Protein 1
Amino acid sequence: MIKTMVWFLIFLSFVEFQPSSNLNDPVYKNENRTCSFYDPDTIIFNTAIPSPLAIVGDLQQTSFLETLIKREQNDFERKEIVQAIRKENPAGLILLGDAVFNGSDKNDWKFFDELIQQIKKANIPIYPVLGNHEYWGRNSNALNNAYIRFPILNPAASGQHWYSEIFGALALIFLDSNKDEMSDEDWDNQKEWFESAVNYFNADPEVKGILIFLHHPPYTNSTVTGDEYEIQKAFLNTFNNSTKTLAMVSGHAHTYERFCINNKMFIVSGGGGGPRVTLNRGKNCHPDLCTIPSPRPFNYLLLNQNEDGIIITVKGVDKGCTDFYTIEEFALNFISSSLVNLKESHLH
């Protein structure tokens, strides 16, 4: 409880409440010219793998203390998101961290268990990463609560919190981005493991693309959090130098963002129900390829794969609504890791 209160006071010290951005703001008209764009009609996608992967971040409830400063409580929208994901019948569900507000609180985990009950009943595999809230409270208690639900994260079984999976022609790499909660030795071991894993998949002819999943975003325009420089220092050199890495996908910032930096895609999808944030605007911000105003819709991602690449569809829903719509859809080509814009829709 003491740790939670300390974190909350720190949180209050830097929260800024800013008005929603405007579609006409010049920052939303920027494009990162380091990306290579292709005509969608020149790339033919098939349905080699019919079931997509679903990806969602930051399902945690808003705490009572947060409600006192008028932060959103989004229990309704959170449940709608999980129901929508279940209806997609995905081949797997990737959780980008912060499944609960307080990792030590059994009631928080009870709510989470009830929330994803339909996912488990459908035997949909879940691939999690640890968020900062999974460490809240007493670390040993908090992590044990996570291990019970996600044995793949338990070092007693694997020796580490990071792991990889193969999905069709994709290698999926899952990292623990909570440097402040890890020893220097563990952080360095993860960094070395990541470099070895990327090199291994680079040399594997059966792997055509690599995706990285972690909680903290290396880049964000959030008014509440900021760029994670430790992530940039530890992982981006290896990520950027690989010819197979397609995207780095994170949560933490309760919004949706998409950046193309050094011809690599960075996606922030933290719209699973945590209180949404507004985004900084202006010339010093990262050029965001998503152009809708903030706070942005609640969201989850669908990742479809075929022999030529992957298509990521961003599904959104507005506050108090049940009708989901496509925020945007884009493709990444296996060979050149280049971006193809397929479709973008405006807010309803």
Protein 2
Amino acid sequence: MAILTLPNEQHGTRDLDAIRAFLGARGIVLARVPVPVMLRAGASSEEILALYREFLGPYMRQHGYQAADVVVLHPDMPEREQLRAKFIREHTHSEDEVRCFVSGSGRFWFHLTNEAREEDEVFSVLCGSGDLLTVPAGIKHWFDCGERPDVTAIRIFTDRSGWVPVYTGSGIEQKCTLAEPCCP
């Protein structure tokens, strides 16, 4: 389901191979995860992790990740505005940020300094069910789950304490929003 959008170039694509190549050249990994079955409404975190264990266990061992949990954001959450405000500000982490989307969707934005170009590079990836995105430690990014979030994702960690956001204070996230991805 992933959609790559390059707002400054008014270009986007749904081509998975093109998205993987673009992201891979920047150290970001996008993988497709087999979606095991349709989840029943209200499935517990333990049930979700058990359904994905066959894929996630080997993946986590291969990459040295130690823990996983489930985050559920839904439109009726009383704290949804506070959570969105936390995610939507540009930040970095001292360890990788890995998200496996179980259901719903959300948009990761990236802000990279490109030495070969005169301006920084800003782009987004809309992720949905079956997308696993790895944002390497130190990459400036933010996440937009929307005003009425509806997403369930597995979060994968080396150490949960490494996932504390370090906000950049650049304010770039206020200039970069998309109501709809600009892709063919």
Protein 3
Amino acid sequence: MLAPRAEVRRIELEGVAAEDLAAGAVSHDRFVGVDLTEYEGGDDGRTARRIAPRAAAPGKSVVAKLARAFTALREELTRIRVDGAPPEIIARLHTNQPLHVAVARPLGRAQEALRHSSSRQLAEVLAGLLATDVTVVARLREATQLADEEFVEFLIAWDTASFGRPMLAEEEAALWRALQMFTSDADVRVGNLLSFIQEGAMSMRRSSIHRSNPLATITSRA
């Protein structure tokens, strides 16, 4: 969000933007489990180019929660967008734990097959996969509790690169090094930013962070 060329314009903590729940058409409880949602290229579903809801792992039925949130957001944005086409929606489970190779490889092959198939029929695509891949996808399909068509869309949109992310301390150190290149009081500015993040990320507190908010914390010495 802070990088000069960053596409992220808004981060919604604990759910999605209120504007994307037009007239309460989608119940808020369908987004339980979504820790944050990033909006790229715009501030809400009507203007964003890409939207990435994230759930934290591990957790009970976290995949089902993420899948439910993805489907609900896709349905709502399809309804409220004037042209009827939702923005690109990316689903992520954000964790510092890696995705086990026994799941990652079958999942990757299934995603590749779906993206290059002219058919969106799950059974047809699975028929061309290895038996072990079919087993993994079938278990995931059961865990998400989605219908076949919804599951296909979710599987294509799932970004597994969000597994095995750096620890928070590593991210903080990288931020400090970047700021130190431009200012002699990087520790003060990083401290301001971290305080802002900690305040906004308190458990069960919904809040919206626009690009101008964190920028203000690193341009002020207060």
Protein 4
Amino acid sequence: MKTSLDYLIAAFVATALVVFGSNALASPITNWSIDDFTTAHFSYVNFSGLTTDSPVVGDGTDQNADYGAINASFPTVSLLDGQSLILSGSMTISGAKTTGERTGLFFGILYEPGTVGNPVDHNGWLGYAADSSNDNGGVVSGDEGSGRIFARDVDGTDFNTTTWLSVGAGRGVEVANDPQADTFADGTYDLMFKVTRNGSNAVVSASIVGTGGTTYSDVLGPATVSDPTQLTLDFNRVGLWATDLDAEQVTYSGMDLSLVPEPTTVVLLGLGLLTLIGARRNRR
């Protein structure tokens, strides 16, 4: 026969399931830096709002937001089994000239080991990034017309640790592919990038959904990363790179990083459940 304590335990478990499904350590990202490769090769691009969660690339003049890469650091997160790290927000493009160009967004959650105990590391950044580009008529040959998730390879040597952009020259391994021919145009697009720990593996997914000239929907993954040369479960950076848009301005809004569930929530709920079970055994 069930006692009131049994019902209390059942209620506690139900509450825990709700909390686990919804509780998140959500933090606005407000410390953006201009990527070194951008300043070296695209010094004409203007940036603003880098100390807010809504950074802006371009000043509204013709093609000033053609190319703009930024990144932001955060205290290192080491994912526990079952935890997810989620980058979210939106991107609004204005003044885009999308004819005859490969256009795309490259964004992700990363780990830069050179900032953690090894400042002379030049093997590039680990982590995962999505590339959502379109061929816009097939003008440029190669990887256009694609939506892909890359796992960053520890052996990459094409750029040193001051930049996170490249996935070429052995720097990245494609782990998911969704051919994408939609065209970025003026409009607003919701962004999401998610990494979940599943045992010793990482499960990665991403999406870009919005309405510009046409309804745009690029949903990537989930893809499982297990190769030790590509795998990381530690993260301390996020990156955004809108490329070849020929736009006047690109505005990101409400950029946010969430950890689901919070580590303290896991511990407190576990201790609470153990206490209730212990009380039940003592009563018996």
